[in-house]
Amino acid sequence: MKKFRLRALKTKKYFDVIIYDSVEELRKAANGYDGRGGENISNDDVLGVCHPFERIKILAKGQKGRPKKHPNIGIIRFAKTHTTTQIVFHETMHAAFWQYRLSLPKKDKEKADFGPTCCLKEDAFLHLADRLYIKMV
């Protein structure tokens, strides 16, 4: 397994990128992550996955100031055996959508909210981008 950080442009925000040795390891980790909240999401057919999130640093008791947002905004997972340019493109586009939504002012976030998971608008865009990528190669 290899792990590194992918920083968003012009910001301190970053994604952890994990490349697993096999697709089975990737799916096990993704299912473990998605199953934490009691959700029944299956990653048994994925070849890559993006888990976006937002963390808040809580102040210790007695500390003054406001809680701050943590710069880690997600995890992108790949399998070494199935890492193609198309899969990397697809998952990093999910990450780019998430980073874009986080960069908007609070009043504009609802306009760019495509749902808590990959919803139809984002998925339709990525499907179109995937088709265009295949035609260019």
Number of helical stretches of at least 4 residues: 3
The chain-level mean pLDDT equals 82
Low-confidence stretches: none
- End-to-end span in angstroms? 29 Å
Q: Provide the structure class.
A: alpha+beta
Number of strands: 6
Which value, in Å, is the CA radius of gyration? 16 Å
Largest sheet: 4 strands, mixed
Going across the biggest sheet, name each strand in turn.
1-2-6-3
Secondary structure: helix percent? 25-40%
Could you tell me the strand content as a percent range?
A: 15-25%
Q: What is the H/E order?
A: EEHEEEEHH
Overall spatial form: globular
Description:
The longest helix has 19 residues, at 85-103. The chain has helices at 23-34, 85-103, 120-136; strands at residues 2-7, 14-20, 48-52, 56-57, 68-69, 72-79. With 137 residues, the protein is an alpha+beta fold. The strands form two sheets. The chain has a four-stranded mixed β-sheet. A two-stranded antiparallel sheet has the order 4-5. The radius of gyration is 16 Å and the shape is globular. The protein is built from three helices and six strands, in the order ββαββββαα. β1 (2-7) and β2 (14-20) form a beta hairpin.
Please specify the SSE layout and strand pairing.
Layout: E1 2-7, E2 14-20, H1 23-34, E3 48-52, E4 56-57, E5 68-69, E6 72-79, H2 85-103, H3 120-136
Parallel strand pairs: 2-6
Antiparallel strand pairs: 1-2, 3-6, 4-5
Helix pairs in contact: 2-3
